[in-house]
Amino acid sequence: MSDMVKGNHAFAEAAVRAGARFYAGYPITPSTEIMEYLSTRMEEVGGVFIQAENEGASMNILTGASASGVRCFTASSSVGMTLKQEAISHMADSDLPFLAFNVVRYGNGLGTLDTGQSDYHRDTRGGGSGDYRCIVLAPYSIPEAVELISVGFDLSDQYLVGTIIHTEAALGQMMEPCDMPEMKTVERRFGAIDGTYSHKRISPLTRNRLEEAVEMKERYERIKANEQRWESEYVEDADYVLVAYGLAGRSVIGAVKQLREEGHKVGYIRPITLWPYPEKAFEAVNPEVKGYISVEENATGQMVDDIALTLKKTSQASKDVFALTYAYGVPAMKKIKADFIRITKGEIKEVY
Amino acid sequence: MAVAKKIPSILSKQISFCPGCGHGVVVRLIAECIEEMKQEKNSIINVGVGCYSLMTPSVEIDRFDSLHGRGAAISTGFKRANPDTLVISYQGDGDAYSIGIGESVSAAYRNENITVITVNNTNYGMTGGQMSATTMPGQKTTTSPLGRNCQTTGMPMKFPEMIASSFPEVAYVARGSVTKPAYVNKLKGYIKNAFEAQMNGEGYSLIEVLSPCPTNWGMSPVESHERVNGEIEAYYPLGEFKLREEK
């Protein structure tokens, strides 16, 4: 049996194993154990660890590291990620890859210290000013997070975009059995800034931003076409499909299995990429499905919008879309099942 | 004997600053120092946001366009990723002392082995002459049209003095000017000292440069230089505030 490991410690070690040797961050609950772990681990592997003066500065420090072609990452939580957005937008403008953990805590402003999924809109829409996206990966277990961290770094390098590991307080704080991958070594990115002036550098005065915008859009289309990830089950004959990610997705899987055993024709889609949204998952759903149910750890319902947009795109716009929103905490299977029954009885109105 | 002054090879084309502006002199001195130290293929200049962004197409070394005020943090990333490379953060007073004061102080506090060069022209030049942290008492700007009232806006900030007194372990701190030939020669010595300190691993170095901004001050180039030599130099004394130590 694998060793039990705390989520945040596993995330940090997985990033090191993925070849990242540069970390800058600022403490914030519930992500702090990531940087505590790295404060000694980076030294052991000959990497750089910087505790910056705030989250924004840590992201700007990463900007210099990434422009230097070094595999680099940071970790924070919700309001801390807000402070990084200026730099994240700047990195997008300079096509600089990075990986950031958002160990989400529920709430607005300072928020709470409890688990939640309140940053869906922010993280899937870029987050800062401008016209960009980051790849957003949402693990539902510690082993899956460990796998996605290496994938995320590679995708960032391949497409020259940032990757957000969009996880949540409970996953960062809980323990699970988890095996660690082998240590990887990665080369510096070709042509990066290292002082040797190997390549001519762009200037704000000589850039062709129109051409760049077209290229960026094409790159994003390739990401949408090639990088959608999800898990789904029982959707071919489903009357209702429940859609949820992260730990809410884990609860939904359990709830759907029990509902199936109780005779309800339900299925589930668990998005693993939140951006690009796994639109392809919806193509396999029973054409006679009565409705989709978004299950989210927030009050207002955020991912429900993407489900509706996806249905519009896959010619299912007439289908009802519901949202079961739980602010905050991971919804229990019992609660999801009870609320599903209320939907079938018409007691909960559709959102779209 | 006549001395031929060659344009440094890393300056590829003319940079169009306003007549009388000091940025051209500072960029030229940086380029001369890099060339004399043979660091053309071992330097990174991280350029902040201000009129000096105009230099970027012309400076032929590794170069990055910083976010406004974030120069010291981004330069920290460059230096930690390239520890043997000369890393220069080029900023203005608005960039380094107002929006970027947190990053500027924190890099000095960590004693990052980088060189920060701040060109102080007592206003925000690029946006058309607004009041900055170094605007002089009574100085008229577009956001202090009646003259800076220091009772409500504070006194002009003396960043080099603050760093040298608060963080005595930093390598080197000086303030120079571009308004007289003797000053230019002295400033070049300061810049070279800072670069040598950095390449020698001595720690953080800071050079502030007093520079005229005739366009936004509504003065001729000559008048603007006289203002620097008089009122501004009286408040902002030239010289070295932290000397290098033997290491």
Mean pLDDT of chain B: 96
- Determine the number of helices of chain B (DSSP H or I, runs of at least 4 residues): 9
Low-pLDDT stretches of chain A are none
Low-confidence stretches of chain B: none
The main sheet of chain B orders its strands as 2-1-3-4-6-5-7
Radius of gyration of chain B: 17 Å
Total helical elements of chain A? 11
The run of helices and strands of chain A is EHEHEHEHEHEHEHEHEEHEEEHEH
Helix content of chain B: 25-40%
The total count of strands of chain B amounts to: 7
Secondary structure class of chain B reads alpha/beta
Look at the helices and sheets of chain A and give the structural class.
alpha/beta
Taken as a percent bin, the fraction of beta residues of chain B is 15-25%
What is the name of the CATH architecture of the largest domain in chain A? 3-Layer(aba) Sandwich
Q: What is the CATH level 1 assignment of chain B?
A: Alpha Beta
Question: What is the strand and helix layout of this fold?
Answer:
The complex is a heterodimer of chains A (about 350) and B (about 250).
Chain A: E1 4-6, H1 7-17, E2 22-25, H2 32-44, E3 48-51, H3 55-67, E4 72-76, H4 78-93, E5 98-104, H5 120-124, E6 135-137, H6 142-159, E7 162-168, H7 169-173, E8 175-177, H8 209-226, E9 230-233, E10 240-243, H9 246-261, E11 266-271, E12 273-275, E13 291-296, H10 303-313, E14 320-325, H11 333-344
Parallel strand pairs in A: 2-3, 2-4, 4-5, 5-7, 6-7, 10-11, 10-13, 13-14
Antiparallel strand pairs in A: 1-8, 6-12, 9-11
Helix pairs in contact in A: 1-2, 1-6, 3-4, 9-11
Chain B: H1 23-36, E1 43-47, E2 62-65, H2 71-81, E3 86-92, H3 93-99, H4 101-109, E4 115-120, H5 150-153, H6 159-166, E5 172-177, H7 181-199, E6 205-210, H8 214-217, H9 221-235, E7 239-242
Parallel strand pairs in B: 1-2, 1-3, 3-4, 4-6, 5-6
Antiparallel strand pairs in B: 5-7
